[in-house]
Design goal:
alpha/beta; Spore Coat Polysaccharide Biosynthesis Protein SpsA, Chain A; 2 domains; two-stranded antiparallel sheet; 12 strands; globular; glycosyltransferase activity
Length: about 290
């Protein structure tokens, strides 16, 4: 890999697949193999799993783990990390099945890590890239705040994953990354954004808009994704001690406004958002009840 730091640690890449475009797998795996020691693919019950298996078969350092069905992103990520820990890997580069990583990504991450191993910095839990929206070329942060970054393109410490007991599988898909990174920071780890790495990335049919010099993103998530977003956000805040009912309601209404202003399929999405938010509140009530009984 050409970097002193990355040569001293074992790095695996982890990809979660669910009905991926096989052409994306063909493009991403060879590039990954030039940068990491092993690629672990966890498939969540894809209809085209036989094609995935055939495409990966020639690679000796690629492991395919097949789930019987779609267990969600969090469960699949936990399986990646469990396998990596069991086989002696220190770091896992987590990627979407269509991720296009730069050729020198891991080398630059290694340089970032080496510069922070002087005893003056907190433990690094995640190194993450800048992202470039494939649709319009806008560059945006994968590290949204001090304690939140997205999973795709992140190099994550296996020790950190173990310290916070992994990804929360109840979340299934949305909020999995922010919940994990917030718990990681609370446990004393640091999130580091490597500005030397810019990775192309596309979330659904997202696009940037231009408002008074700012570039907010219209995500245009499908209705089922909107359900999980609104269900999971209040749950995450509650378990991490930052929840308020009014704040949760305001956040949901703000998200709804963006849907009304800039997205398609508004009625279905709004119904899904309301249903998700109500289910999130129901989960919080159940957690409160369990706490009282405990």
């Amino acid at each position: 890999m050409g970097d002193e730091e990355t040569s001293r640690v074992n790095i695996a890449a982890g990809i979660v697949t669910y009905n991926p475009d096989i052409e994306d797998i063909k493009a991403s795996v060879p590039r990954l193999m030039r940068q990491v020691q092993c690629v672990v693919v966890v498939d969540n019950g894809s209809d085209n799993v036989a094609q995935i298996e055939a495409e990966l078969a020639p690679y000796e350092r690629v492991v395919l783990l097949k789930n019987a069905g779609n267990l969600g992103v969090a469960a699949a990520l936990n399986r990646v990390f469990e396998w990596s820990r069991g086989h002696g890997y220190d770091w896992v580069l987590t990627l979407d099945d269509d991720s296009q990583i730069p050729e020198d990504m891991v080398e630059k991450y290694g340089s970032e890590l080496r510069g922070r191993m002087d005893g003056r910095h907190p433990r690094v839990g995640i190194v993450c890239p800048l992202l470039k929206n494939r649709r319009d070329g806008t560059v945006f942060h994968s590290k949204r705040s001090r304690d939140e970054c997205i999973t795709s393109g992140s190099l994550t410490s296996v020790a950190g994953w173990e310290a916070v007991h992994g990804f929360d599988e109840w979340l299934f898909i949305d909020g999995v990354d922010f919940d994990f990174s917030r718990r990681l920071v609370a446990a004393g780890y640091e999130l580091v954004e490597c500005s030397d790495v810019v990775m192309p990335h596309q979330i659904g049919e997202s696009r940037s808009i231009h408002v008074l010099g700012h570039h907010p993103i219209i995500w245009n998530h499908a209705a089922f994704r909107q359900y999980y977003i609104q269900r999971n956000n209040p749950y995450i805040d509650y378990k991490l001690g930052t929840y308020s009912y009014l704040g949760s309601l305001r956040r949901m209404l703000t998200d709804m406004l963006f849907v009304i202003v800039g997205e398609r399929d508004r009625p279905a999405k709004i119904r899904a958002m309301l249903r998700g938010w109500k289910d999130g509140q129901r989960k919080i009530r159940a957690m409160r009840g369990a706490k009282v009984r405990g």
